[in-house]
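Title: Comparing notes on inverse folding

I've been comparing how different people in this forum approach sequence design from structure. To keep things fair, I'm posting one structure and asking everyone to reply with a full sequence. Here's the target:
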């Protein structure tokens, strides 16, 4: 039976790492979960929301979007933000045959001078500050769905000399990776980057807008990184945590295999085998450069 906590049908995930990191991981039975502020991709999880966006250009974008809705009303407005829904509902009832041109012109005048409340600048700054604070406290574990990605071995496993650890998704242990979500690779700009995007967020119910800001933009990267086939788990730092990372424990039974890199140093084998003895289910595997220009994996002879 599928666990109610499982968010996907994957059974295993993989973590690429250097040999030194692998020794620490296997010795401590823990993985490092990091804040996005120390990620290597500067566009991964926006460091700041609404960069270059202020109350005036958000107001202009919002007025333009309201005008668009009045001219081309949607049939169902129930899924909109209640404040927007109330406004549109009033005008639809007042003008069932369509909004008069002169009224649309009046709205057009507001584009140049949008009605902005006195507290709007402070509210926007508060949102930016809250996001930065949340970003510092966010803890993300990055995994891959495949152990044979050549660039990953090169970039994250010390030029093929490192190790990949395979983690099993075990319902009985409530494995953290049961709730992993795949990265969506897209070059589409997140809504939080533009006034038009923020206006679209303001049209969403508050809970959906917060869900987008807190969740969806945590799981998107540009298409340049698609080769990583990445999945993520997101949580927050434990109380009294310091710095931008947290080392969190996993269960020894969750380690399914330890895969040595194609250029793994044989002199390191004894130490790795000694560490693996702590993991009852772990199989020791060796990867190699295959003749088909792919990385192959087989049990260590």
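Reply #1:
Here's my take.
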């Amino acid at each position: 039976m599928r666990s109610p906590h499982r968010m996907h049908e994957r059974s295993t995930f993989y973590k690429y790492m250097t040999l030194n990191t692998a020794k620490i991981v296997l010795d401590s039975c823990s993985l490092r979960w990091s804040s996005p502020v120390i990620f290597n991709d500067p566009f991964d999880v926006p460091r700041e929301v609404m960069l270059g966006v202020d109350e005036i250009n958000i107001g202009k974008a919002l007025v333009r979007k309201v005008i668009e809705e009045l001219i081309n009303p949607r049939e169902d407005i129930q899924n909109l933000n209640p404040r927007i829904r109330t406004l549109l509902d009033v005008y639809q009832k007042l003008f069932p045959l369509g909004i008069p041109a002169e009224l649309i012109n009046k709205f057009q005048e507001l584009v140049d001078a949008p009605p902005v409340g006195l507290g709007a600048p402070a509210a926007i700054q508060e949102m930016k500050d809250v996001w930065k604070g949340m970003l510092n406290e966010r803890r993300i574990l990055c995994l891959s769905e495949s152990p044979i990605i050549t660039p990953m071995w090169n970039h994250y496993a010390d030029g093929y000399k490192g190790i990949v650890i395979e983690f099993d998704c075990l319902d009985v242990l409530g494995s953290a990776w049961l709730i992993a979500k795949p990265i969506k690779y897209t070059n589409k700009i997140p809504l939080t980057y533009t006034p038009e995007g923020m206006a679209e967020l303001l049209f969403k119910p508050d809970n959906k807008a917060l869900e987008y800001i807190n969740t969806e933009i945590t799981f998107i990267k540009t298409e340049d990184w698609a080769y990583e086939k990445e999945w993520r788990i997101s949580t927050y730092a434990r109380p009294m945590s310091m710095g931008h990372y947290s080392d969190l424990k996993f269960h020894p039974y969750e380690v399914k295999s330890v895969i040595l890199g194609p250029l793994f140093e044989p002199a390191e084998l004894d130490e790795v085998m000694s560490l693996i003895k702590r993991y009852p289910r772990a199989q020791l595997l060796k990867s190699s450069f295959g003749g088909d220009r792919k990385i192959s994996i087989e049990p260590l002879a």
